[in-house]
């Protein structure tokens, strides 16, 4: 009995303490440089800020599970489709855009309704080749090349139903193949050529390094990280690659003063000081992005944009198809 | 007596969060995610296409893994309990190490050995058929069985002691042949075998590590993986995840009912008197001895040796793509570990929670284990609850905690207290299972004698239970605490913003594609935790009276 009373007392006390403490700005983020940015923001502004760092999948699940009583103020991850889905459920503050000078990439990915803010761009999928497995003169140069029987059983990519940033790659390929039907046919042929599917960029890259596969289709920042680590790889940017924006959303249910702080956070991230932290915070991974602000440049190892043919995948068109396409992919390509 | 508070605690730790999550299968709009009232649509979805195939695969995997693990556990427990096999202690150590090892680590080790470009390939020993077999159902079952036979072993070993030497002698005197004696013994062991099967079955259908590594890349979808997809990938489908969880519980219920049936029949053969004379140990000689050594060595190699070697090798590798070789070896990853100050705070935070939650989990598990050892409906219900929890991936319980405790009447979500509760709830099923054998072995007569001498409940705990069970309790505590140190799904979903647990800090480096550094960090963390475990064990052994150490590790309880 005593135990039970103590237990309920402690629940009560903790609950009260929880309610009374001053509310810091709460950031849920899946970005590699998030801790560095949060620390720098807190130092620059004095606004107490707390970070929960988790992968995109668990992050979105956490946000959805909290729907009735959101504990987050800022959500930050790659991929506009999941942001769009949060916006469609009325969970994001809309109609606000920071006062900044977008460059071409930025203009391509800013949403019309201001439901979230893009702060960087990578490519959803590029081709990374292990040069110890694939000879230099046999490296594929286009998406269609991947269907060549000489690569049978040597190609790997992430499962879009597991790895959030992979859906834009699949959607983009479907778009450039001429639509969903012809896109599905392309993936069927890839599967017939022995396509391996792994969970996430990390697992796919590891399989590439180990030589389990010779060709990996992964996010560009991951591919550039591989060159920084001096792995024996070559990067290929087939025509076209798809833009993958890193987006920040602000909770629609947060208090107005907290929303104001969240806006300051976004402005800080897009400021020269914030960009500097983002460009250095995760040198081997997420920091290898293309800035969306005019006049900012990417890190030195990042492949120059000139000569890369890229496209924007419209989240309002392809977002609603995500469930159906992912289910199809799992049922027809993964197994 | 202790029944009501215990029930209340189990209600708060397991039933309330699990029920919150599972009800979403019937009422998708319960917590505001979906819309509409009562619906069975989620079950329709869970019984079509990918989801139902995954469920079937899980069933097959659970049955095959259970059978393989029970056979292994039976063989090993015979070696340790009934023979003079010299490496008996080593088997106990292996069993405990496997309980501690995360299953994804075991799977990854095998991948690194067998895959194209793996260690065998590099040394020119590529065996195509073995690779093809391993990257499919066979590999999934083998890895799960090597991971989980520990539970079968812990369930079966104490029963050998229950079958006293008199029985075997009597059988011999009556001229029973070897085969009939074996049949008699296996009949007496049947309840333990079925109990071992049930727990391995539940553990393997609830395993996520192997499902996500081997199962996913081998195009062999398992139910936990399907649940993961429904919970973690856009568009999220909580009702589908909940419906699939119900189906996993239904599968577990079949195993629990089977167990109940066997136990009811086995009552006729009840021989557990608590006064059995130890049976003579069989001297292993000649061929049998060689066979035992080879069997145990291969098992140790397969279950632990390969994965550990593969992981350690990665942590010393400079450039992964350049393979094994003297020129590609480096200490740089460990040098970086020494400078990873960012890991210290998470390590201490998780350490504190592990000590607190591990202690509470062991206390509750002790109570649960003595409850499970009894007969009747309540014990059955708790058995089903615990095995059902086991059969669900950890992220289901964690998601349930969000639904249940992110409420204005219980605003615990986002506190370390709630994360600690989730750790306790998650540890209860396996820890109570580990303690079940030793607890049932503690002679009832001792308790009755103590009662006759009017020793109260606490006194009995102090003078009977704790002295007799000090080692099993210690091992259970170490198992719970070290498991909590590396727990990922609840840590990720429930940690208070700004206070990273160890597993979350570790996974950051994995997602950063820094494989050398991340494995070096993992190896170091395991090293430090193992050191702490040995230290605690040494302290307990040094500070408790010698007479308390009647019971060895749970395997040799009583």
Produce a short descriptive summary.
Helix content of chain A is 41%, strand content 16%. Chain A is of the alpha/beta class and 335 residues long. In chain A, the strands form two sheets. In chain A, strands 1, 2, 3, 4, 10 and 11 form a six-stranded mixed sheet that branches. In chain A, strands 7-6-8-5-9 form a five-stranded mixed sheet, covered by helices on one side.
Give an account of the 3D structure.
The complex is a heterodimer of chains A (335) and B (558). In chain A, α6 (167-176) packs across α7, α7 runs parallel beside α13 and α10 crosses α11. Chain A is an alpha/beta fold and 335 residues long. Chain A has helices at 2-20, 34-45, 56-65, 80-88, 104-109, 167-176, 180-192, 201-210, 220-228, 256-270, 272-280, 315-318, 322-334, and strands spanning 25-29, 49-53, 74-78, 117-123, 126-130, 155-158, 196-198, 215-218, 233-236, 241-250, 310-311. In chain A, the strands form two sheets. In chain A, strands 1, 2, 3, 4, 10 and 11 form a six-stranded mixed sheet that branches. In chain A, α2 links the parallel β1 and β2. Chain B has 558 residues and is mainly alpha-helical. Chain B has 24 helices and two strands. In chain B, a hairpin with a 2-residue loop joins β1 (406-407) and β2. In chain B, α3 packs parallel to α8 (137-162) and α21 (457-485) packs antiparallel against α24 (515-543). Chain B is globular. Chains A and B meet through α1, β1, β2, α3 and α4 of A and α1, α3, α11, α12 and α18 of B.
Largest interface: A-B, 85 and 72 residues
Helical amount of chain A: 40-55%
Instruction: Provide the structure class of chain B.
Output: mainly alpha
| Total beta strand runs of chain A | 11
* Oligomer type: heterodimer
Secondary-structure element order of chain B, N to C: HHHHHHHHHHHHHHHHHHEEHHHHHH
Largest sheet of chain A: 6 strands, mixed
Q: Identify low-pLDDT runs of chain A.
A: 16-20
* CATH A-level architecture of one domain in chain B: Orthogonal Bundle
Shape designation of chain B: globular
- Helix-strand makeup class of chain A: alpha/beta
